[in-house]
Amino acid sequence: MQLSRRHLLQTTAAGFGSLALASLLADDVHASGGISGAPGLGTPHFAPKAKRVIFLFMKGGPSHMDTFDFKPQLQKDDGKPLPFEKPRVQFAPTSNLLASPWKFKQYGESGIAVSELFPHVAECVDDLCIVNSLHGTNPAHGGASMKLHTGSDVFVRPSMGSWVTYGLGTENQNLPGFITICPTLAHGGTKNWGSAFLPASVSGTPIGNASQPSDQARVKFVKNARLSLEAQRMQLDLAQSMNRGFLETTGPDSALEARIKSFELAFRMQTEMPEALDLDSETAATHKLYGIDNENTADFGRQCLMARRFAERGVRFVQVTHSNTEVQWDQHGNLRKGHTQNAAEVDLPIAGLLKDLKARGLLDDTLVLWGGEFGRTPTCQGSGNDGRDHNPEGFTMWMAGAGLKTGIQYGATDEYGYYAIENKVHLHDLHATMLHLVGLDHEQLTYRHAGRDFRLTDVAGKVVHDLFA
């Protein structure tokens, strides 16, 4: 007679092994939120301001003092030595101060100064909550990207999109809860949108990648030309009955349970995913709003329009990545050429997304987050006075949407933009604040793994309540 592991543990050595099994099952229940009935079951801890998140990731690190953090003193002291110590750990040597090559102008009723690199986003400045005092811990792309996405730069941890999806569940059973559009495969790659030890069902679903145009970005195998939906349903029912039968003999198995859920989701996606990706159903005016009618903005414009379509269909977390095989915003040299082109590709589409979300009433319950893994140094790198190095000591990210103050700048870097010095916001604080906006307490959103409770903010992080309206 074949014995299941559960039966073996219950009968061997007077059932002593079942004590270990009971402990494991308790951990599994605790991890899924089964005792508290809170995270993991789609129940927020308190009333959320935002139902979903759209993260606009500028891979490589945009220069804050050239975009949304105007530094008059830097302009005055161009070419002079930095009058204070540089960080003890630097990515590479830099020389003297480098003024921004771009002019800044005040916009909107708030009068916030924005670089001429972003004239279209500047039109939306009164809807932005600009945080000028971000800081991280890692000056290298890989570690900094992992820190931004997962909260850790040294261990494999669940991504913030996975945490949000795990905590809130999904609003649409026919689409993944977490979608990443044209993600980069470098500097952590799939780990930046993976679920690590969280259930595989909350892992990000990639659509294309950064090395291919967005008009070619598709979910693989979403259509089956050989079999009808009825025939596929019969196949799936047979496979699922076998999987569930096996699950009954093994007891709780998160990997197998996630596989069962993923098969069901993949089947349902056939009906809704193609329609969600069909941008031809949008009007010519909408295409123009996102810059899809322009060769320079079409690629990122399509990604932003996809993000809006997924957001209105109930996807919890959508990431849009601006990157290529050259780490898009990483201008150690050719700053003027590189940042000019990069901004020209994303400025109009981002503004189009903000305006479209607002016009449709979606900005009221959608959190939009913009930024890279770090900023750049105010000191010069490379030949020809035309480059900036990585800088995690102080940089800018902005947010817009549900529950936030609008038309404000929060925190500050020093007069040159090297260090965050006023109302400093660590990446853990950013994560805690984001979770709070979607109704999740970052200290309670935990998952039991390897004998301890893990969370996105690890053992740190504080909610920046000053940002809330």
From TrEMBL:
SUPFAM superfamilies: Alkaline phosphatase-like
Signal peptide limits: none
Domain of life: Bacteria
Name this protein carries in UniProt: Sulfatase
Native species: Rhodopirellula islandica
